[in-house]
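User: Reviewer 2 asked us to show a designed sequence for the structure in our supplementary figure. I'm pasting the structure tokens here. Could you produce the per-position amino acids so we can include them in the response letter?
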């Protein structure tokens, strides 16, 4: 039934009008395709820009993390050195204390 109505419409319109409608449809389709290609190109460029920006930000953050880790390592080495020095001082004081006590006992006993 649909084909009958289309057939009748085609048969009742003059050929130049039908061809004009076909040409207009083709132009609209071409314009839509062009717009779609332009939109796809813009989306591609936006995606590339976003990816590049993300890579840049990630590289900056990695650099900051590396610097923080380096600083933390230096601080840990400094703390370790200070602890080792404090241990050495305490050991020396303990040895001196034991020596002093030993001498004091000998004097008291003697």
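Assistant: Here is a per-position design you can include in the supplement:
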């Amino acid at each position: 039934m649909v084909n009958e109505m289309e057939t009748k419409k085609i048969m009742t319109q003059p050929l130049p009008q039908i061809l004009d409608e076909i040409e207009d449809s083709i132009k609209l389709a071409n314009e839509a395709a062009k717009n779609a290609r332009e939109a796809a190109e813009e989306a591609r460029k936006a995606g590339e820009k976003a990816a590049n920006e993300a890579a840049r930000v990630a590289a900056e953050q990695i650099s900051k993390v590396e610097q923080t880790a380096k600083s933390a390592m230096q601080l840990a080495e400094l703390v370790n050195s200070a602890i080792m020095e404090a241990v050495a001082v305490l050991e020396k004081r303990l040895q001196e204390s034991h020596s002093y006590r030993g001498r004091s006992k000998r004097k008291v006993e003697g």
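For the response letter, you might also mention the following. The radius of gyration is 45 Å. The first helix runs from residue 2 to 12.
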